[in-house]
Specification:
Number of strands: 22
CATH topology of the largest domain: FAD/NAD(P)-binding domain
Distance between the termini: 71 Å
Strand content: 25-35%
Shape: globular
CATH superfamily of the largest domain: FAD/NAD(P)-binding domain
Structural class: alpha/beta
Length: about 450
């Protein structure tokens, strides 16, 4: 039996970072990564293979080189079982690997509902992190003109925009009242809808799918109101579920929704087995309720926590839960959200106050490439602590969204934000006198003392 001090199963974002962080923290330990794919994709880049980057070959993580540089062994093969008593993993080939510590980074799989009639027809696709599948999907889509995308989360929206750019007729169907409705408040979502529509995507919101139809190959989609949409291809983008089968078979506990249960240091109930990324349980930063968020950024934070603490709790985890931080872009317009939306905060019972300000991302606003920048902030009314923020602007909003996430995690309040020191430059930021993040906070400050 092969032996390693640490075995990491999976090498997408979570597995990659867990292995490298673990090696950096424990340079004398032998670390082996086992993955079933020959090549690993950049998960967030998958929607863009259909037009912007053209091919999966242009969306590959340089993991092999990174592992080689770090002195980490890579084995390509599928782990089919974990024996906790023996502390070993068995591959489909029959080969065995023993471990001292094990990290499960098995990720997630796209949802394909059994109740949806026609989901098994030819040219009905999901969007897995599987290069072989996506290469075949790309070949099939090349001969398709009419595409229906079901599900308007981030992947559905980004994929729809890419397919339109490639010259296809695209209808995006979403059962909720707005696209990206689980991430943004309605006042932000409608702006994204307007932009996506202007780019050529036809939207059907507030209506579900009754069935996908065709003989052996899909020819259309029937909506719940009886309307039919012709389709040469259908893409199901209706969510992902954790790939926790190895953990379940090994007798590890999972949540009601299938996530592997872990503690603050990403340890499962077996102290020698960790779980990170999409397969691992997460709890909300504010409420400690289970949070189903699946983000590469979250996965990497968990992986760093696990990697540093594999053999001893050398770094104390100082944050109390998962912040949902999302960002995307359509053309040169970016959208971002961190923490609670206004709707979610009210649903959870928070007493809140909001502030909105719209300015520009450069100064003066006459500079070439200047973009409007709108910031919406949600604060606790009594505490004055920032709970969430939403941003629309140019492509710089990704970093502004991250800044809002840092502010939330460090529990900054109205006064501490208003007195923060910022650096500005005409070509890079909004004016120091009209910085939308600070101006939106100022709106909240005035509301709290009754001036607005």
């Amino acid at each position: 039996m092969n032996q390693a001090d640490v075995i990491v199963i999976g090498s997408s974002a979570a597995g990659l970072v867990a292995a490298i962080t673990g090696k950096n923290a424990n340079p004398d330990k032998k670390i082996t990564v086992i993955r079933k794919e020959e090549k690993t994709l950049v998960p967030c880049g998958i929607p863009y293979i259909f037009e912007s980057v053209k091919s999966t070959e242009n969306d590959l993580m340089p993991s092999e080189k990174m592992f080689d540089t770090a002195g980490i062994d890579l084995v390509v093969g599928e782990v089919v079982s974990v024996n906790r008593d023996e502390k070993s993993c068995t591959l489909r080939s029959g080969e065995k690997f023993g471990y001292d510590k094990l990290v499960l980074a098995t990720g997630s799989k796209p949802t394909k509902p059994s109740w949806l009639k026609g989901a098994e027809l030819q040219n009905v696709f999901t969007v897995p992190k599987d290069k072989v599948y996506l290469d075949a999907m790309q070949v099939s889509l090349a001969d398709c003109n009419k595409v229906v995308v079901i599900g308007a989360g981030f992947i559905g929206v980004e994929l729809s925009d890419e397919l339109v750019k490639s010259g296809k007729e695209v209808v995006l169907v979403e059962k909720l009242p707005n696209i990206l409705a689980l991430a943004f408040d309605e006042d932000i979502a409608v702006r994204i809808e307007e932009l996506l529509s202007s780019r050529g995507v036809s939207l059907k919101t507030g209506i579900g799918v009754q069935e996908i139809f065709g003989d052996t190959r899909v020819t259309g989609v029937r909506l719940e109101n009886g309307e039919t949409l012709p389709a040469d291809a259908v893409i199901l983008s209706i969510g992902y579920k954790p790939d926790s089968s190895l953990a379940i078979d090994a007798g590890l506990s999972v949540s009601e929704t299938g996530f592997i249960k872990v503690d603050e240091y990403m340890r499962t109930e077996d102290p020698d087995i960790f779980a990170v990324g999409d397969c691992a349980e997460k709890r909300d930063f504010f409420t400690r309720k289970q949070n189903p968020v699946m983000l590469a950024s979250t996965a990497c934070a968990e992986a760093r926590t696990a990697g540093i603490n594999l053999f001893k709790l050398s770094v104390v985890k100082t944050f109390n839960g998962t912040l949902s931080i999302f960002a995307t872009a359509l053309g040169d317009t970016g959208f971002g959200v961190a923490g609670l939306t206004e709707k979610k905060a009210r649903e959870e019972g928070f007493d809140i106050v909001t502030g909105v300000f719209e300015g520009t991302d450069k100064h003066p606003g006459t500079l070439p490439g200047t973009h409007k920048q709108m910031v919406k902030l949600i604060f606790g009314n009594e505490s004055g602590i920032l709970l969430g923020g939403e941003v629309i602007g140019g492509l710089s909003v990704g970093e502004l969204t991250n800044m809002i996430g840092f502010i939330i995690q460090n529990r900054m309040n109205v006064n501490s934000i208003l007195t923060s020191q910022i650096g500005t430059h005409p070509l890079l930021t909004a004016s120091p006198a009209g910085y939308p993040l600070l101006k939106a906070t100022g709106v909240v400050a005035r509301k709290r003392i009754g001036l607005l």
